[in-house]
Prior knowledge:
- By secondary structure, the chain is mainly alpha-helical.
- Among the domains are: about 65-125, no CATH class; about 210-340.
- Helices cover about 55% and strands about 0% of the residues.
- The chain contains 12 helices and no strands.
- The chain is elongated, with a radius of gyration of 24 Å.
- The protein starts with about 40 loop residues before the first helix and ends with a helix.
Amino acid sequence: MQNRVVVRAASLVVLTLLPLSVLAQADATFTDLSTDSPVLPAVRYLAEKGLIQSAPLFRPDDKVTRAQVAKILTVPLVDAEQLRLITASSFADVPAGEWFVPYVEAARALGIVDSAPTFNPNGSVTKAAFLKMLFKSKKLGFSEAFGDLASPLGSDAQNTGDWTFPVMRFALASSVTAVNKDGTLGTGQEITRGQMAVLYYRLEMYLQGRRTQALLSQAETDIGNVLQLLNVQDMSQAQWAAARSVLATRGALASRPNEPLVKGAVKVSEGFRSLVAGYKAGIAGDYDAAIAAAKEAYALAVKAHEFAPGLSPIVTQMQGIAKNMADDAREMKAQAAATVK
């Protein structure tokens, strides 16, 4: 079956729910950001919310510090007068008189950062660490959200028991982040001020129900990746891509639970996950499991079409792959039985 089941990539139907918005081009508030910078909308949003100062320079490529993160996350949550009353911190390395004292102490009191002997205010921040603090500041149940989806998501998000896993899982489901070209999520990457602004902005847009199209596009990209990866028999990457596609559509469903296209997209992504499982089983010689997975994928394709007839092109493609997989598995099973005799 290893040489028989070949998945050919085809043109995927675009999972379009909403037209992509076009951001108006305007003069940059910050002179070190061009008017077409992808960071600019996020930075302007943070400035409008009073989370950062409107100043001539933003320094998007500088590493963001833990003290800066503490300020950005606590300003919306604590009254300015209350902040002024905080003059000391319980952290040994946060001395009185420093500008960040009230923000760091407020972050500790709110549970955004852990109570520990030291805080390291000038230290850099990884993507996963920032996202964890961000989700905590919004009181999002990220640890439990999508808890039934416990499959590895990328080369740096394989350990489902690590503290970073639920963080990155929720980040994918909310379209706050996406996979990089090298198959990583940037979990341990030290982020810049610009990257911090974009992550914050995307979560805000998701919470306002404005990232559904981004999630569907993300799922479509990963389904395309699944097809290509199966062709080269890169099963680990294919499984990760399939898991991410399910997560993206489930995230969209959380925002749009009654949208037929989103419901159909969930079934499509689940169907491709089944196809990956069937392909893997076939390579291992477990033909019964391959047949069962192919049947499941076919049934999910039917369900997707019931929800959203407009998904017919990709549904037809799924059904064709599932049928070929099942037929090949049956043939290989028969050949194996004949060889035993």
